[in-house]
Amino acid sequence: MGSPSSCGCGGGVKLIFACSGAADVGEIADRAARKLTHAGAGRMFCTAGLGGRISGILQTTEAAEGLLAIDGCPLNCVRSCLEQAGFQRFLHLQLADLGLEKGKSPATEESIDRVAARATEMMCS
What we know:
By secondary structure, the protein is of the alpha/beta class. It has helices at about 25-40, 45-50, 55-65, 75-85, 110-125, and strands spanning about 15-20, 45, 65-70, 90-95. The protein has 5 helices and 4 strands.
């Protein structure tokens, strides 16, 4: 698959919060979010700042048209950060749902493209 493209849904900013954990699936989630940002499908935003309750990050998140959480493993840290910061309306992509398992999923271009493609589908449906 080539680079995902902007879905052309129009409207405001869509923010993408990704796992960037030390595991292989964290790397896949992070790189997929960066790929989506470069393709114009959304804008990767700071998950750590969200978890740290940084006021500017919370305000920008609140103002966004849409939010996507990409979690690498079933611990769902990104989803938890959003929920603990008070956000309830967001899309959630769990890499295990795509058959990517922690410790068994090298960060190949194929895996990154698969995650980016699924995220694009979710954000544009």
